[in-house]
Specification:
Elements: E1 13-15, H1 24-32, E2 38-45, H2 53-59, E3 75-80, H3 84-96, E4 102-106, H4 111-114, H5 126-139, E5 146-153, H6 160-170, E6 174-181, H7 193-199, E7 207-210, H8 216-226, E8 230-233, H9 235-239, H10 243-249, H11 256-270, H12 279-290, H13 295-304, H14 310-323
Parallel strand pairs: 1-2, 1-8, 2-3, 3-4, 4-5, 5-6, 6-7, 7-8
Helix pairs in contact: 3-5, 5-6, 11-14, 12-13
Length: 325
């Protein structure tokens, strides 16, 4: 199997899974205005049963479109859990429904997830990581990609050696490393790209660097420091909605008036969903990220932050579009 390196071209840009943020509607919008080689879904929590097709379709409606967004970006289902058998059975179901491979989450730092022995909690148990990946790999057809997303460790990056060994021995085909420990959380000054470069020579599968990529300059520096061509972007893709295109195609950063259009597009699409009562909270959440890139977003957020009525919220978005047109 070949894998990416800086000398083999520009590398892939992958849109990260962001629990509670990157829902199917937002994936649809961001992949339409960017170059992304792959998206990974928010995680599906697997406990002790086979999930229903309805559950998987709610998380990943792209399964009805051959596992792609309407703009053609592949969408891979991500599973989270601690029981190898049930993760394996649900992985088979997801791929039978159309997911182009399976991703296993070993990196989520959320307390509620870790308390139930999921996500980053498994970084403390490399043997469990190995057993999960081996069970899933053995259950999936040879042609289906199995990827894993990890952090450098729970409390120390020194832990990454055992973690990576477990991933490789478990049979993963790709590995994404978020270059912080669980205890680092999302602290900007805790990013440790250099550790990815340290372990990279021992990894013989595609390696994806993740963490603190907010613009084209960050992407270039991450590639230089890690030695990885393939990048995964997360919060930066919310702060700058065309980040993928800025990195991959050297496009200009998106204008605020265009961003307003994306906010309205999201709102209009959400109104067609069975439940649209979450619309205001989701768009406020997105505006919190946008405030870091656009001063206008801070002004708009101050106007709409106390509005909960959906119609009033959308009316304010239309007024904003007229104001900044």
């Amino acid at each position: 199997m070949s894998f990416s390196s800086p000398s083999s071209g520009s590398g892939r840009i992958i849109l990260a899974p962001m629990e509670g943020v990157l829902d199917p509607l937002l994936r649809e919008i961001l992949t339409a205005v960017n170059h992304y080689d792959l998206c990974v879904t928010e995680f599906v929590r697997v406990v002790d049963q086979l999930l229903t097709k309805k559950t998987l379709l709610r998380l990943c409606p792209e399964l009805l479109q051959n596992g792609k967004t309407r703009s053609g970006t592949p969408v891979r289902v991500q599973l989270l859990g601690q029981h190898p058998q049930w993760l394996a059975e649900n992985a088979v179901l997801a791929t039978e429904m159309g997911s182009p491979g399976i991703d296993i989450n070993f990196g989520c730092p959320a307390r509620r997830v870790n308390q139930s022995c999921g996500g980053a909690a498994l970084l403390k148990e490399p043997e469990a990581i190995y057993k999960i990946l081996k069970a899933v790999r053995d259950a999936l057809p040879a042609g289906q990609i199995l990827s894993a997303k990890v952090r450098l460790g729970w409390s120390s990056p020194e832990e990454c050696h055992e973690i990576i060994d477990a991933v490789l021995k478990g049979g993963a085909d790709e590995l994404a490393i978020h270059a912080r420990t669980k205890e680092d959380g999302y602290k900007a000054d805790a990013i440790k790209w250099e550790w990815i470069n340290t372990v990279r020579p021992a990894i013989n599968i595609p390696l994806i660097a993740n963490g603190e990529i907010w613009n084209a300059s960050d992407a270039a520096q991450c590639r230089k420091t890690t030695g990885c061509a393939d990048l995964m972007v997360g919060r930066g893709a919310l702060q700058l909605p065309n980040l993928g295109a800025v990195i991959a195609r050297n496009e200009a950063e998106m204008s605020w008036t265009t961003v307003i259009g994306l906010l309205l597009q999201y709102a209009e699409a959400a109104l067609l969903q069975p439940r649209s009562d979450y619309l205001a909270s989701r768009l406020k959440q997105w505006l919190v990220f946008l405030k870091q890139q656009y001063v206008e977003a801070a002004e708009l957020f101050s106007i709409i932050r106390t509005i909960h009525d959906t119609d009033a919220f959308i009316a304010q978005l239309h007024q904003a579009k007229t104001k900044w047109a």
